[in-house]
Amino acid sequence: MFKVFDERQLAHAPALEMHNGGWTAHNETPSRAELLRERLGPLAPARDFGRGPLARVHTAEYLDFLEQAHARWLAAGREGDAVGYTWPVVRRRPLALDRIDAQLGRFSYDAGTPITAQTWEAAYWAAQTALTALQPLLDGSERAAFALCRPPGHHAGADYLGGYCYLNNAAIAARAARDGGIARVAVLDVDYHHGNGTQDIFWEDGSVFFASIHGDPRTEYPFYWGHADERGEGPGQGATLNLPLPRGTTAAPYLAALDQALAAIDAFDPGLLVVSFGADTWEQDPISHFKLATEDYPVLARRIAALGRPTLIVMEGGYAVGALGDNVAGFLAGF
Ligand code: OKP
Ligand code: ZN
């Protein structure tokens, strides 16, 4: 399997996140990727496809904001990581607000996703990592590829960051595949958390099917997306499938939901499958509540591989660093 990792992703290391009413050490650490790099090597470095493919998913004003936010934060006399504290509920009306705090609210939806001096560089190379891993699938020289991305991407929308995510790596790769001539692309999101950014990006796009299995947003982050009645709109009507599962879900009901998602994807007949893979479905993940065991990951992967589609696996979450190596290696082995 072709595997890609780029060192420039490592410098992003936000100090704190807002968690259940207090500031705690950030869970999305460089060590997550460092240990996977040691475990999964050899890994190819990313090629640079430039800003063009990022701008096919994200708005120009959002990309400019993300690139400049931390410098503007420092210019405002602040220290440390940039984070917002006021959000425009339901967006209000478009206002050209000039203060960094207003822009942080405008372009984000939570306080768990600080912008550091290195965030743009790391997020940029995470997106390039996904694009690089996509290439051998486009030219047919590989059937499966793995993009070791961090920061993750599936919570980031066209013009917002959140959930530790800044650029939507999986969506950028899916859009690049469409632009590269693949008529139908499916994204299967098996991170514990609903991939709200990916869903929003393809909400009205009937050429990209989005299926997600995740903790029920009635009790789980990100709360405001991922409910079973969200099916897409307009040309995208029916091309979104949400399968929320309760806290405590074990392998048997999880695999039943997976079979349902895979049947829907198979019926859509995609020329490429993008898997947003989070290992935070593991039973001892520190911020999640499913009960998958390490030995379940190869089983999951074999069912996905049995679809027989060219498959790009994009790393999303997974925060139990002691077990991350076994869980990710087991998943990849299933392919
Ligand atoms: C990112 B990914 C803990 C509360 C929830 C956001 C979780 C983001 C998960 N601070 N914080 O989907 O693994
Ligand atoms: Zn997650």
UniProtKB/TrEMBL annotation:
GO biological process: epigenetic regulation of gene expression
CDD domains recorded: HDAC_classII_APAH (cd10001)
Family affiliation: Belongs to the histone deacetylase family.
Cofactor annotation: Zn(2+)
Protein name in the entry: Histone deacetylase family protein
Lineage: superkingdom: Bacteria
The Histone deacetylase domain, residue ranges: 44-332
Pfam families the record matches: Hist_deacetyl (PF00850)
Keyword annotations: Hydrolase, Metal-binding, Zinc
